[in-house]
């Protein structure tokens, strides 16, 4: 069973051969093999990628100056 990467809901509907929609948080998911892409559906129906929020590289810790 698929779970939403955003809200962990199981309320996922299939809208295409490799496309799914989360009815809990209203995001669209595309799955190709082991790669998943996550999109926000805009008011005009266009999709905005959210991959950088879910699958981006981890942000390195900031180096703090020690005041010497």
Summary, kept brief:
This protein has 68 residues and is mainly beta. The chain has one helix at 51-54, and strands at 12-14, 19-22, 27-32, 35-41, 47-49.
Shape: globular
How many E-type strands?
5
Average pLDDT level: 82
Percent of sequence in beta strands: 25-35%
* Helical/strand content category: mainly beta
Q: Spans with pLDDT under 50 lasting ≥5 residues?
A: 58-68
Question: Care to describe what's here?
Answer:
The protein has 68 residues and is mainly beta. The protein has a domain of 40 residues. Helix content is 6%, strand content 34%. Strands 1-2-3-4-5 form a 5-stranded antiparallel beta sheet. Strand 4 and strand 5 form a beta hairpin.
Which keywords apply here?
68 residues, mainly beta, 5 strands, 6% helix
Could you outline the blueprint of secondary structure elements for this entry?
Layout: E1 12-14, E2 19-22, E3 27-32, E4 35-41, E5 47-49, H1 51-54
């Amino acid at each position: 069973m698929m779970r939403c990467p955003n809200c962990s809901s199981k309320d996922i509907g299939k809208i295409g051969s490799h496309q799914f929609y989360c009815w809990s948080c209203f995001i669209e998911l595309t799955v190709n093999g082991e790669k998943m892409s996550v999109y926000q559906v805009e008011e005009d129906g266009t999709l905005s990628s959210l991959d950088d929020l879910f699958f981006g590289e981890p942000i390195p810790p900031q180096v703090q100056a020690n005041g010497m």
